[in-house]
Specification:
By secondary structure, this protein is α+β, with helices and mostly antiparallel strands. The protein is 45% helix and 21% strand. The strands form 2 sheets. The protein has a 7-stranded antiparallel beta sheet with strand order 1-2-3-10-5-8-11. It has a 4-stranded antiparallel beta sheet with strand order 4-9-6-7, with no helix packed on it. Helix 1 crosses helix 5, helix 6 crosses helix 8 and helix 10 packs across helix 11.
Length: 278
């Protein structure tokens, strides 16, 4: 377990020793005392928060307030209006590639609409049983194993996305969002209308919006790593530094300089090492 400190908050972070049985699933464990209010930064994954501790995480967002275990849609937090806080929070956080999210969630990421839903509303008693068991075991490896077993069962029983949609998403991710999305349909052998419709309904965003989110995510982590905004703009394929500034503001409500100090992003390299290569 590693430790990260920011202001009054102390984050203890655990990482699984083994990868998930489901490709596209990553996990980390968090124990946070006195969680300062922090900005939620959009991420190109569907995020599950499995809360089993004595405290409870709280999300304040445009639609109201959410407590406890939840699922957040692809790009949740866009615009910078979502804040997280809490005390004595213990949770397993899961990131789901949108390619596997529909099977695991039981609903399409599009049904979340970039918003957040209580996990009980999606999984019912299955969610409550998992949270009870997470609180009963004492080791993070046991918690990861319990979580992974449930995710694997749900994935095996769930509906998969179209292979062409999965291929298009993987192309966008591999290209760090710097792909000509208009050419994806031709390469997949589908009409543009068909790919755009299936992609949006199964992934939750249009290909163009997905590419923008993936590119932003790469750029944001480069800023946190200490690279200059001018250098990041060139490396991430933005037209110029002003273009980067506009995109970062649109996704986070903050300037590139402010985003570089976001603890939500700084924790990533500890919780998901190697997920954001240079």
């Amino acid at each position: 377990m590693r430790r990260f400190m920011h202001g009054a908050a102390t984050w203890d972070i655990a990482c699984p020793r083994r990868p998930s049985r489901v490709a596209g699933v990553t996990m980390a464990g968090f124990r946070v005392r006195d969680l300062d209010t922090l900005r939620m930064v959009p991420h190109p994954a569907v995020t599950l928060l499995l809360d089993f501790g004595a405290g409870s995480p709280v999300l304040d967002h445009a639609a109201g307030r959410q407590r406890g275990s939840m699922a957040a849609g692809l790009g949740f937090g866009s615009g910078g209006a979502v804040r997280a806080r809490g005390e004595n929070v213990e949770c397993v956080q899961v990131r789901l590639s949108p390619v596997v999210a529909r099977a695991v969630l039981g609903v399409s990421p599009a049904d979340l609409g970039g918003a957040v839903a209580a996990l009980d509303d999606l999984w019912g008693r299955e969610a409550s049983r998992l949270l009870e068991r997470l609180g009963e075991v004492s080791s993070w490896e046991d918690r990861f194993a319990l979580t992974d077993a449930l995710l694997a069962r749900r994935h095996a029983a769930g509906a998969s996305v179209d292979p062409e949609v999965a291929w298009a998403w993987e192309r966008i991710v591999a290209g760090r969002g710097m792909v000509r999305v208009d050419g994806l349909a031709a390469e997949a052998g589908w009409s543009r209308k068909r790919l755009w419709s299936r992609f949006r309904s199964q992934i939750g965003l249009s290909p163009k919006r997905a590419a923008k989110l993936v590119r932003f995510d790469h750029a944001a982590h480069r800023l946190v790593a200490g690279e200059s905004a001018a250098g990041v703009a060139v490396e991430a394929g933005y037209a110029d530094q002003s273009h980067l500034h506009r995109d970062v503001m649109a996704f986070t409500g903050a300037t590139p300089a402010a985003v570089a100090g976001e603890p939500f992003l700084a924790v990533d390299d500890i919780a998901w090492p190697g997920a954001h290569p240079g």
